[in-house]
Structures are given as structure tokens and as C-alpha cells.
Amino acid sequence: MAWSEITLDPIEPEAVLARVGAAEDGAAVLFLGVVRNENEGRRVSGMEYEGYVAMARQQLAAIAREAAERAGSPRVAAVHRLGELKVGEVSVAVAVSTPHRAEAFDAARYAIEEIKTRLPVWKREHYLEGAPEWLGGRTPVVAGGAE
Amino acid sequence: MAWSEITLDPIEPEAVLARVGAAEDGAAVLFLGVVRNENEGRRVSGMEYEGYVAMARQQLAAIAREAAERAGSPRVAAVHRLGELKVGEVSVAVAVSTPHRAEAFDAARYAIEEIKTRLPVWKREHYLEGAPEWLGGRTPVVAGGAE
Amino acid sequence: MNVLFFASHRELAGAGDTVVALPERSTVNALLAALRERGGGLARLPEQVAVAVNRQYADGETVLADGDEVALIPPVAGG
Amino acid sequence: MNVLFFASHRELAGAGDTVVALPERSTVNALLAALRERGGGLARLPEQVAVAVNRQYADGETVLADGDEVALIPPVAGG
User: Fold this and answer.
1) B66 has which bridge partners?
2) Could you tell me which residues of chain A have a Cβ less than 8 Å from any Cβ in chain B?
């Protein structure tokens, strides 16, 4: 079964990796998203993640299931952290293991792209100088405003 | 500087991952190749890796450098293990970190494909039943036999 | 019906949620219009808003029922 | 000149290396022909063989010099 979690705790990459792997698997791919110290030319001191937790749990579980279907392997793990993160801390981790490597790369990439596109999570960047700002992101499904 | 190593010791994924990462990186990809328990319908008990060590060191260093160039990041680590490995043991690990994720995925994939294509390493599969066999692989550059 | 706000929308609304009374069988678009009519920060909601009904993305024509959990979803930025 | 064998080639040769005497300015292809002429397992070397000279892949027309480290490279199977 694909595994997923929305958490407030630090993400341990080796624990995520440990959730995948099986005797028939010859390949594992781990992706980590990390808070970085710069964005569009501004120096970043940290990132604040907010989520619609109940929905994010469902969406992340669905993304992990879809990635598992693509991979042809149920060995998919995905975790997203919320709260205040410092530069260098892991905000998201995806691990996939499969018999052959192409499927593991493909499914890991699929999962992170979907996470960026539809997981109801938002981030507010904190800067060394100036007020924090919500980052613009992608609008998943649009409800028309003007009727 | 890209880092690479040919080793006889067990590979620790978290140690390979720890060789990459920087404050400006928002993404890290780790690929692991693992000995699996089955190949082309035969049950495998283990894998024996032999290498032309002096040349493999040079080739792996070159592959890591090329991957770093593609990634636009020197934060690339690649290690290949030789010797007798059991099912589930890691034979090869590649880690890449970059500011944005596309480059990390691309460079990790590049490195493992090049490793499979040109690293002078061979493997002999041991089976639950029957004699061990050298696996057919890819011929890097062909010298004509018939003149 | 209860409507949830997050991130930049929460700041516009000045609250994490609000209660909206709508005629039966109103659509998501009607809900958005009702929210905008309240004025204040909500009048500045973007023209295009994503909405989730019962934790699933829903389009503007989706018909709402009493007891639905409705959430306005700002452009997502996970990862 | 010293020639190294690995994996399946080592088993054909029955040894990890051998010494070959060749005229000056012989090519990689001439070396392969000389090895095959020795008969035994080496006569069964595949038609196409990859060769490294001084730890770099080299084609059949590469001219060899005394002191070169030459290695026959079976199809590689890393990872």
C-alpha cells in the first residue's frame, strides 16, 4: 500500500526511504524538497507552511496511490511537512521503489509535480529584509467568479 | 566538486545524501540500485560485482563531473560497490542537489544511465538453482575484431 | 453553510471561516458572489478562485447542499 | 605489452592478464587478432570487443605504444 502523511514534525529522509523497498525491487528514488536561502533574488530566512490538513491528507494519499499505479508498485511513500521551517529543512519527501529504475524515476517525478499542482498547502516566505509574503502558486480547479 | 567512489564497503544512502545539499538548493534526488531477488524469471540469491577499479574510478569521476555540468551544480555524489552483495543490498547510489528540481532529476538519471553504459563493472548473478552467470551488458566502444 | 479560508484568503477574510446562508441548491459561483458582496477584504478575492466541496476540488456549477464543507483554495504552493 | 582481462574474458583467458609482444605501432585490432591466434579460450573472444588503452575507451585503429595499459572490456553491467 502506498503510504502518505501530513506532518508537523521534521522529516527523516532515511525513514521515508525505509518505507519502500522489497526483495523484487532493483531501484529506489528519493526526492526531497528543501527550504532554500534565496528566491527570485531575495534572501530567505525561512518558510511557513500552512495546509488544509483534512483535504491535504486525502489529496496526498490519492497522489501516492496514483504514483503507485504508474509505477506498477505499491511501494510509494510521500510526506509533506507544515509549520515553520528553517533554510535547509526538508518540506516534502517522496520515495518510490520498483523492479526497474525508469518506473521509480517516473513515479517520483509524477508525485512531486502533482503535490505542487494540487496539494492544498501554501507557503509564506520570510525574508532577511521586509515583510513575509505568500508565494503565488497554481490554481488547481477554477470556479468562475463572474457569473 | 562532484564526489565519486568505488568501494568494497556497504553503501550508506544517508551518507551519500549528506554529500550533497547547500543553502541555495531546493531539491535533492537520491537514486539507489539494489540487488533484487529475481531476473528474467530466475530466482537470484546474490550478485558478485567485479570492476576494473583504476578505470572505473576515472569513469565514475567523469560521469559525476558531467552530471554536475548538466545540473549546473557541483553537488553530485556517486558511489558504486564491488564484491559479493546479497539481495536487498545497495550496489550503486547517486545523489544530486540543485536549486530547482528538474535539474536534480535530470542529472541523477543521466548519471545512472552513464554508469550502466560505460562504467567498467561486471556482475555475475548467483541463483538459487544452477551455476552463476555473467550478465550480458552493453558494449561501450567497439574495437572491430575482423580486420 | 460553513466556509473555510486559508493563507492569503484567510488574511482577506480576517478569519479562518465564516457562515453563509444561501437558498437551497445554490452553486459554488453563487457562494463566491455572496462572499464578495460582503465587501471588505472579501471584495478583493481574486476573479478566479478554486473551491473544494467536501475536500474535493469542485467547479463553479457544483450545487451545494446543507452541511457541505466548503473551502476556498488560494493558488497552492506545496513542496 | 600487458593486457588485462575481466569477468567473462578472464574466464576465457584463464588469467587476469597476459603479456603480448607486437611490432611497433601495432593497432588495437592487431592486438585482438594476436590474442585470438593464441587459440584456446581466447579464440572464443566475441567478434566485437571493447578495449581500453590507458583506462580510456579506444577504437580498433588506435595505435599502441610500449608501456600502454591495455584492457579488454566485456559488455559492462554496472548498477
Assistant:
1) none
2) 13-14, 17, 21, 23-38, 87-88, 97, 99, 101, 104-105, 108-109, 112
SS3 B60: helix
Q: What is the rounded CA–CA span in Å between residue B87 and residue B70?
A: 32
Q: Which residue of B has its CA nearest to A116?
A: B101
Which fold does the domain C2-73 belong to in CATH? Ubiquitin-like (UB roll) (3.10.20)
List alpha helices for B7-52, DSSP H.
13-18
Measured CA to CA, the distance from residue A91 to residue C14 in angstroms comes to: 27
According to the model, what pLDDT value does residue B146 have?
Answer: 42
**pLDDT at residue D22, rounded to an integer:** 95
**Nearest Cβ partner for D60 among B91, B137, B144:** B144
Task: Tell me what pLDDT residue A146 has.
Answer: 42
Domain range summary for chain D, segments of one domain joined by +: 2-73
Mean pLDDT of chain C: 95
pTM of the entire predicted model: 0.94
CA-nearest of C61, B104, D16 to A105 is B104
pLDDT of residue C70: 97
Residue spans per domain, chain B:
3-32+50-121
The ipTM assigned to this model is 0.94
CA–CA separation, C3 and C20 (whole Å): 7
Residue numbers in chain B where pLDDT is lower than 70:
142-147
Identify the pLDDT of residue A136: 83
**Helix, strand, coil percentages for chain D (3-state, nearest 5):** 30, 30, 45
Q: For residue A96, which of A62, A66, A73, A126 has the smallest C-alpha distance?
A: A73
DSSP code string of A52-115 = -HHHHHHHHHHHHHHHHHHHT-S-EEEEEE-EEEETT-EEEEEEEEESSHHHHHHHHHHHHHHH
Give the architecture (CATH level 2) of A3-32+50-121: Alpha-Beta Complex (3.90)
Distances (CA, A) of B107 to A91, B64, B67, B98, C36: 21, 9, 5, 10, 47
Tell me the chain D residues in contact with residue B123 when contact means C-beta distances shorter than 8 Å: 77-78
